[in-house]
Specification:
The protein is an all-alpha fold. Helix content is about 75%, strand content about 0%. The protein has a two-stranded antiparallel ribbon.
């Protein structure tokens, strides 16, 4: 959370309170499993196994009870990028390579999202800070600053997409036709405004 100018709080987190096993797991174990799975995915060449893993990843989303609106904000843009990468891989290599890319990246995106919605931003920051603590003797590495920067970056990317969805819905409510320029311009303005809010919050905490 960071403070808005009107005194309210701007939520930069997709965290959803819950009591699932994933919610109760320590932050370090969730990220360890995520990294392990990402390595395993690229060692698997069988599309049938990858398809089963994808189904299991989707079941995990259902298990942690992510609302539909949250699903759109979290998945539409990343999965669109995955689709582009998959098409590119199929074009450069072959259809099998494209499908492998699609199954691997889609499963990874979904699992990463599940980690995101079950991890408080404070826990994530503490995890990164503790991870970098042994390197704090290096002058340009400040664990606290790095953890805050990473956490805000991870939360800010889906926040931009959410702003775009809000602008599109507001335009539709006014009866305006879909126009890329009419979407991009206010999105840039609001994104810069949101970035200023975050910058002010960082300055208020006297972070470099």
């Amino acid at each position: 959370m960071v403070q808005k100018e009107d005194g309210g709080l701007m939520d930069l987190s997709f965290y959803l309170p819950g009591s699932s096993v994933l919610h109760r797991m320590p932050t370090w174990s969730k990220f360890f499993l995520l990294i392990s799975f990402s390595i395993i995915f690229y060692a698997i060449e069988d599309l049938r196994i990858l398809a089963v893993i994808l189904v299991a990843a989707i079941a995990l989303v259902v298990y942690v009870k992510v609302p539909v609106r949250r699903l759109k904000a979290m998945f539409l843009l990343p999965l669109f990028m995955v689709l582009l990468f998959s098409i590119f891989s199929a074009f450069v290599n072959d259809l099998n390579a494209g499908l492998l890319t699609f199954f691997r990246l889609t499963s990874l995106v979904i699992m990463a999202a599940c980690v995101t919605v079950t991890t408080r931003i404070e826990d994530f920051m503490a995890f990164v800070e503790n991870l970098l603590l042994p390197l704090s003797f290096i002058p340009f590495i400040k664990p606290k600053t790095v953890s805050l920067t990473l956490s805000l970056t991870l939360r800010f990317i889906p926040e931009i997409f959410k702003l775009g969805m809000d602008i599109k819905e507001a335009q539709a409510a006014r009866g305006l036709n879909s126009n890329p320029l009419a979407l991009i311009v206010p999105l840039i303005v609001l994104t810069l405004k949101r970035a200023d809010d975050i910058s002010d919050a960082i300055d208020a905490r006297m972070l470099d």
